[in-house]
Amino acid sequence: MATDEQVKATRNTQSRARIKGALTELIREKGFDALTVSDLTRRAGVNRGTFYLHFVDKYDLLEQLETEIIGQLEQALLAGDAPAGASCAELFPYEKILSALLIAKSDFAFVAAISGPGGDPEFSSKLKRIIEGLLDSGLARAGTAVKTDAFPEAYARELAISHVLSIIDLWLARGGKEAPEVVARMVVDAKDVCPSQLVG
Length: 200
Description:
By secondary structure, the chain is mainly α. The protein contains nine helices and no strands. The chain has helices at 4-30, 37-44, 48-54, 58-78, 94-106, 108-115, 121-142, 153-173, 180-189.
């Protein structure tokens, strides 16, 4: 039989899950800026006291939930060595990208909501910093640097990172229609495609 502490922990977990679900729905419906704590508690079916037991305000709620998902993505993309079979030239290893996409897929509604028009504009910046870290670890592994013969370094780095972010952003905006494996392969293969190959 469950102890009082176990019952309390279960209720807390369920309350947080309901509040997160309410936040996700309301961001899609009215945008984060327009929603209120009252909106959240009504939608989640919890009282305000329960909300404030977990969060200071709606900004703290968003920050806590984003920190959780960002932490998981950092772990997937930046922790440990490159996967077995990854070449030194592979700046964005398939297995690492796939691992991150599977995390996003497992919490897709929330990730799509916060990265969308009514979500948190800072989320894309946070994700970009992780992708930059992945680029830097790949460059270090390859013992090389961003090429600066065609573009200044800042622009060359932006080009290297932007294709990863653009593909992921579009996948999220399209509702995650493609399997994470397909999207991860697009991210890896896009480095060998120039815009002129895509038109005409």
